[in-house]
Structures are given as structure tokens and as C-alpha cells.
Amino acid sequence: MIIKIRKWKLLDAEDIAIALSNTRVQDNLRDGLPYPYTEQDGVDYISAMLSADENETFAFAIIADDKVIGSIGVFRQGNIHKKTAELGYYIAEEYWGKGVMTEAVKQICEYVFDKSDIIRIYAEPFVYNAASCRVLEKAGFQYEGTLRSNAVKNGKVIDMNMYSLLKAEK
């Protein structure tokens, strides 16, 4: 399976609507996404990513064997954290556990470090999402600690893990 990341196209909206209309996928993401996720929701998201400042928002479709299967993005933070960026991602459930996300994370981190002045990329997966923690570790991220009672998801107070990758470490 060939994995790559590429800039979004409006035609990708249908594929991401299918991937995000799955509660198991959404249970691992931040709140605010509509459910079910429609093709128009996808068009709106892709339009926003295409019009975003390319030095602040690094947003890509994840492609496996020429099909859009998910999304990955790195988002620059502000003020004293202006050289730090947060990583977020998801893929369709049928691609879980196949090494796809690890490869996509490696590709986007290389891109961001090569094309910007970002020096630190971090991610905050929910503690219960062991697969996402493994993805980050396999991609070279370091575990920095647990953020206790850091979020409320599906009505439950949960912990999140903090991982980071430094440009100097790549």
C-alpha cells in the first residue's frame, strides 16, 4: 500500500464524509464535528483549509492507493508558542492498525520542519487511544507526560497524553 499526503481538493469531500460518519472515528477526535458528517460538511472544511494561511495551517488529505482515507494537519500556535504547532489526524476505520497513520505523521512532520520555522510539533491523544499513542511513538515523538482531567469527551472527564517531536531530533 502506497501512503502519501497531498493538498486537499474539493472532490475529496465525499470520501471524508464517509470516514467521519463513524462514531468510532469521532470518539477519538475533539468535539464540534457534525454527525452524521455530510459531503457539504466536507466541502466546507476543505474550503477552509484551502483558504487558510499556508504558513499557519498545514492541512493535507491522506491517500492510500489513490483513495482519500483521512486527514492530517499541523496548526501553528500563537504568541510565545509561535514556533510550536499542534498535530491532529484521523483515518477511516478500515485502515486502522496498518501503519498508514505512522507514515502520514512522518511525512507531514518532515514537510513542516523543512518548509517552515516550526521547531516543535506536539499532539495530545486521549489516554484511552493507545493506537494513536503508538503511532506517535513509532513516528519518533517523545512522551512528555499525562495531562490529568484535561478534557470532557462524551460526558466523561478524561486524561490526555502529551507527545512532541523537535526539529532538532528529526
From TrEMBL:
Domain N-acetyltransferase as annotated: residue spans: 3-163
InterPro entries listed in its UniProt record: Acyl_CoA_acyltransferase, GNAT_dom
Transmembrane segments annotated in the record for this chain: none
Molecular function (Gene Ontology), one example: acyltransferase activity, transferring groups other than amino-acyl groups
Keywords (A to Z) from UniProt: Transferase
Pfam families linked to this entry: Acetyltransf_3 (PF13302)
Protein name, entry field: Protein N-acetyltransferase, RimJ/RimL family
